[in-house]
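Reopening: Branched-chain amino acid ABC transporter permease still failing for me.
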Amino acid sequence: MTNSTLTQATARDWLRRQSRWSLPEIIFWPLLLLPFVLFPTYLPLANQIAIAALFALSVDLILGYAGIITLGHAMFFGLGAYCAALLGKNGWGEPLTGLLIAGAFAGFIGFVASFIIVRVQHLALLMITLGLGFLTLELANSLGWLTGGADGLRVPRTWPIFNYFRFDLWGYTAYGYSLAVLFVCFLLSRRLVNSSFGLALRGVRENSTRMPAIGSAYKSHQQIIYTISAAMAGLAGALLAQTTSTVALEVLSFNRSADVVVMLILGGTGRLYGAIIGAIIFLVARDQLAGINPQYWYFWIGLLLMVVVLFMPKGILGFISRLAGKRD
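Support: Ran it again with your exact input. Result attached.
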């Protein structure tokens, strides 16, 4: 057996092991249903967490697996939100088709932007993504006749899901809907990263200059994952518009892009579950700290972030894996 055959067999075995569901994973997802029973008054917050987790998951695909750093991914989140809102405002409130259209639109813009993204690296990449985000924000602000500008958009109530599940004031349907979309996107992401394509992405992240030497078209890999990530971010934005019936310029803001990076740092990049854990920790901490100290709650978030970076550089999940004796 040649070295090449042995390497391929080893890679296949590793991917097969990675694809198996572990017991903690099987337990984790039913736990996300507990707010329906134990914390019904916090369902609106749970809905925000599910949406933020989906957005963080989209960023993790490019940051944690492909090594594409970004500070402007809220552009795609906002595009998805405005697309779904405008569909609803113009009489089309069917949630699932609106969700898919919004995701496809954000994905198309992401595909166009990817031709620029794959040509720069490091600090230049940060500046490009940041600039694209600011450009989109100012464009939305200037097109007030379409986006509502600083006043935002009021979206007519979304139609019932499958013409049966109506969006209620307590947030039962909204959270169930967002959680279902998050789970489906997680399954797709999990299958993606635990494939040969996912291995190629890890290779790009570790050393993009060596990838062409083994025959990998790494730029096309980056373009594909960036497009998928943009579409997923658009889905998250569309969920926000559909479940809250409002869209403001804040969906395109730098703060939203920065917050999602903080979530990934807290949970751990390149792990998928890190996006969800980070979103839970960040939004629950923000909710509780804002209630205790409305003016200075960001101080405590900053302190939490410093503790995690100093003592858990690979995030909370990375720290737990190290305690369990597992290697990345």
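The two ends are 28 Å apart (CA to CA). If you still see a failure, please send the error message rather than a screenshot.
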